[in-house]
Write a structure and sequence with these properties.
CATH class of the largest domain: Alpha Beta
CATH superfamily of the largest domain: FAD/NAD(P)-binding domain
Structural class: alpha/beta
Helix content: 25-40%
Number of helices: 10
Strand order of the largest sheet: 5-2-1-11-22
Oligomer: single chain
Radius of gyration: 22 Å
Number of domains: 3
Largest sheet: 5 strands, parallel
Number of strands: 28
Bound molecules: flavin-adenine dinucleotide
CATH architecture of the largest domain: 3-Layer(bba) Sandwich
């Protein structure tokens, strides 16, 4: 039996690791992971890559070595189509930066397929966004933003040193969800670090960050108290928060609102909304929702196919909300983690010809980290039985523990302990920020 998982992200890599250990290593099934990248970085860390707090070169996991250690196979491949009759995947040709072909168009067969290709930012069709805004959907985009940020800081420092004291760096971020909020705070930390590490002319007043949110408040998924506390803290740091502000179009280095207010900016980041890849809406015979997510049944098999599962941000899974209303499982790392666990169980059930289990989403709460300044959030379940508001050091520790749990799922206890130790050592021997 051949199980193919497409997408080695928050959910897909956990699933491949688990199935590799349970089935691949024991020769009970062939487990193959396909991803269009060579390495994995946990997506909730991308805003830290963008600011430079995290170095993808140090913190990412190489798929090939990880697959070798955990009993599964890895192949580089970018999915572009599925032939469900023949149970075959179509993979695009891959070329290097110079345009030279690395791999031609190929096919890959499967007995069971798991789609875990995640999501991308939703520009909601707003004019000029795709062409003029930076997205933080992939490590490449986050790294490219970081390089531009570094260059802007260096230019700014030079101009200030030459007496052009009116010069500033403007960053505009659209979307007051976790990504926008966390990136805003990270930029202030980056400014502090650059000043410490030699760009002495840049002071706090030279960085202007505008955070623009269409809704009436930041962090709509969290309570009003947390949202207000976050907004106050960001304002204290120096972020200009604009709620109830709808961006109508984007131009090169500017955003224009629906009442023609203009935000000029050197860097513009679009972090509003998530949708699954447009490609999914074109897979013949498979149903998708408005966010292009593949509709899955309670056992996470996609509607209309008994050999394809979907999980994480690319899966549209309906659940009952607190008041009995129907709602989609939110596109979060914890959802991808919980879905990966269930798909692993259900694939093993299929092999043993046992009945499949249904997905039960357990909201463990939400946390938002304002860099090293503070963190806010609510924790659900566990000791708190209900929801527990957390703030400051405890919230920051809970936030960090989310990543540790992902590391635990892919590396196990021993390696996670070693990785944690290595992180602590790096904290002492390396600068606090990637400076190039
Ligand atoms: C900046 C940022 C901050 C976030 N912060 C948080 C947070 O604090 N808490 C939280 O819970 N969630 C957060 N999220 C959301 C969270 O990262 C996602 O919900 C989660 O990563 C979804 O997991 P996934 O496995 O579905 O997909 P992903 O983790 O996105 O992985 C998808 C994988 O599929 C691969 N892939 C994509 N297309 C193809 C293709 N065609 N062929 C082959 N491979 C493909 C990609 O390379 C990637 O490895 C954040 C997201 C971002 C962007």
């Amino acid at each position: 039996m051949k199980i193919v998982i497409v997408g080695g992200g928050a959910g897909g890599l956990e699933l491949a690791t688990r199935l590799g250990k349970k089935l691949g290593r024991k020769g009970k099934a062939e487990v193959l992971l396909l991803d269009r990248n060579h390495t994995h970085i946990w997506k909730p860390l991308l805003h830290e890559v963008a600011s430079g707090s995290l170095d993808v070169g140090v913190d990412s996991v190489g798929y090939r070595a990880h697959a070798h250690q955990n009993g599964f196979m890895f192949k580089l491949g970018s999915l572009c189509g599925i032939d469900r009759q023949r149970k075959v995947l179509h993979l695009e040709a891959l070329a290097d930066a110079e345009g030279e072909e690395i791999l031609p168009e190929r096919e890959e067969t499967y007995d069971y397929l798991v789609l875990a290709i995640g999501g991308v930012s939703n520009d909601f069709g707003v004019d000029g966004v795709a062409a003029n805004c930076t997205f933080l959907d992939s490590p490449e985009q986050a790294t490219s933003f970081h390089q531009r940020l570094v260059n802007h800081f260096i230019r700014l420092n030079r101009k200030l040193s030459q007496g052009e004291t009116h010069q500033e760096l403007h960053v505009a971020i659209v979307g007051g969800g976790a990504t926008g909020v966390e990136l805003s705070a990270e930029l202030f930390k980056a400014r502090e670090c650059f000043t410490t590490y030699g760009l002495h002319h840049i002071k706090a007043e030279h960085l202007k960050v505008s955070l623009i949110e269409a809704g009436p408040r930041l962090l709509p998924a969290l309570s009003e108290n947390i949202s207000l506390a976050t907004q106050n803290e960001l304002t204290r740091l120096g972020v200009n928060v604009h709620v109830s502000t709808v961006v109508a179009r984007a131009e090169s280095n500017a955003l224009i609102t629906n009442n023609e207010h203009r935000f000029d900016a050197d860097l513009v980041v679009w972090a509003a909304g998530v949708k699954a890849a447009d490609m999914l809406a074109g897979f013949e015979g498979l149903e998708t929702n408005r966010a292009n997510q593949l509709i899955v049944g309670p056992n996470l098999l996609v509607k209309g196919d008994q050999y394809i599962f979907a999980l994480g941000d690319c899966a549209g899974c309906l659940i009952k909300g607190p008041n009995g209303e129907e709602q989609w499982v939110p596109p979060r790392a914890q959802s991808a983690h919980q879905m990966a666990n269930l798909v692993a169980k259900n694939i093993i059930h299929l092999i043993k010809s046992e009945p499949l289990e249904n997905f039960v989403y357990r909201d463990r709460g939400s946390l938002v980290s304002l860099s090293h300044y503070t963190a806010f959030g609510k924790l659900m379940g566990g000791l708190s039985k209900g929801s527990l508001k957390v703030e400051g050091r405890i919230a920051r520790m809970a936030y960090v523990s989310l990543y540790r749990m992902h590391q635990l799922a892919i590396h196990g206890w021993y390696r996670t302990l070693l990785v944690t130790l290595a992180d602590k050592i790096n904290h002492f021997i390396r600068p606090r920020l990637k400076l190039h």
